[in-house]
Amino acid sequence: MPLTKAEISRLRSLQEKKHREALGLFVVEGEKVIGELLAAGFPFAELYATEAWAPAGTAAVTRVSPTEMARISHYPTPASVLAVGRLARAPLAPGALDRGLTLALDGIQDPGNVGTLLRIADWFALDRVVLAPDGADLFSQKVINASMGSFARVRVHTAPLAEALAGGTAPVLGCDLGGEDVHALPALRDAVIVIGSEGRGLSPAVAARVTRRVTIPKFGGAESLNAAVAAGIVCDQLRRPARG
Amino acid sequence: MPLTKAEISRLRSLQEKKHREALGLFVVEGEKVIGELLAAGFPFAELYATEAWAPAGTAAVTRVSPTEMARISHYPTPASVLAVGRLARAPLAPGALDRGLTLALDGIQDPGNVGTLLRIADWFALDRVVLAPDGADLFSQKVINASMGSFARVRVHTAPLAEALAGGTAPVLGCDLGGEDVHALPALRDAVIVIGSEGRGLSPAVAARVTRRVTIPKFGGAESLNAAVAAGIVCDQLRRPARG
Question: Count of domains in chain B?
Fold first, then answer.
């Protein structure tokens, strides 16, 4: 049964954040990323695929023609499968940041960087990621694709950061050029790592919450490291066993 | 004096690698990146700017109208300045990789990743970067922009990697999942760090030249780290002072 115009229009509208919010749904496309998310147990609400796609497991698939796929896809060159998920936002409980390791992203706009940071949080088994509301939208396809499946495994909250950090007991680590050597950091059990945008750095309200400024030793001429590279080095340090 | 059609056509043609190679020139656009490259002393051959751009130093500028800038720009939204540089390729001398620290990129296609890796090489003052010929072109605008000025400071060679590594005396470090703990690596004075593409990993010919396989300890579910994040963690380790 062919898709109705209304169905096609609904799926295409999910390109825009305002429609995702209104409908409570998001779209992701591509054999690799959908395969990874299904393997991670992500409960998609709808799956559309051409005959070229063989579903993993028992997911219910709506078969569409290549022409229909081209109409519902958000890309000029559609993949063989498109999945729809439900937006789910876990509220950040008061005091949640006091326990475990948190990566807090302060206005990072680049969706590829946000996805790469989710992979870092997943690799190092951080307890959660908090996104400031003014950064890239967690439910944009570019973020989900760049996360390579980590989207399904990492606990992510969206919350105003300065408020979330107020009154917390865990040290708040901020990277800048004049802090203590990151290599001297012990393997902290509880900590928040705040990462600012590359263009603007940390917002003043978040910078005011930083309790430990850390610096990655620099040997050459670059002004900065990419935000995800810096976060990776800090996380690797925090997960090192204490020196004997 | 307005630009001629031939001049406009020449500048636009530099979007494509084959024309860059034929003319021996490349283009970069944008106030920030050109400012950084001029500050780093990069000797541009030509500079085109609208009245909105104030040149740094004594660079000779060809003033163009906004309409002309729109015609020579490679972007839909042109900046106020466009610079032309000469392609310069330093040959890789035999035995060059035996001394100092080298970052070798094996077929990394994503220009943003290549630029981020140049920043890492610059930050950690590596001695050189070697790009395999099948990766992103060093002289594409996206690479130069993502390098944030490091393009002007890092010594970069383009060379077939497996041949360049043959017969070398420096250890060749490759990241994978079954190697020795990266944290156990000493601060090597001479080493080559090879980084593969995220999709395909190291090519078999390059993988065969790896003499030390190193692993970044993993705690969670991600299959891999972004290539630049992994390179940053390895470089940070190599630059650590030896433990007391």
Answer: 2
Same structural domain, B182 and B73: no
CA distance B22 to chain A (A): 31
For residue A108, the enclosing domain spans 96-238
**Alpha carbons A62 and A44: distance in angstroms, whole number:** 13
Q: What is the pLDDT of residue A57?
A: 63
> Same structural domain for residues A192 and A109?
yes
pLDDT digits (tens, 9 = 90+) for B4-62: 999 999 999 999 999 999 999 999 999 999 999 998 889 999 999 999 998 766 668 99
Provide the whole-model pTM. Answer: 0.93
Using CA atoms, how far residue B38 sits from A104, B44, B61, B115, B153, in Å, is 35, 8, 13, 18, 11
The beta-carbon neighbor of B153 closest among A125, A218, A220 is A220
Are both B215 and B134 inside the same structural domain? yes
Taking a C-beta distance cutoff of 8 angstroms, is the pair B99, B211 a contact?
Answer: no
Q: Which residue stretches of chain A have pLDDT < 50?
A: 244
End position of a domain, from candidates B66, B86, B106: B86
Mean pLDDT on B82-108: 95
ipTM of the complex, rounded to two decimals: 0.92
* B168 and B150 inside one domain: yes
d(CA A198, CA A210): 17
**Does B124 contact A219 at a Cβ distance shorter than 8 Å?**
yes
Interchain contact, B122 vs A233, CB within 8 Å = no
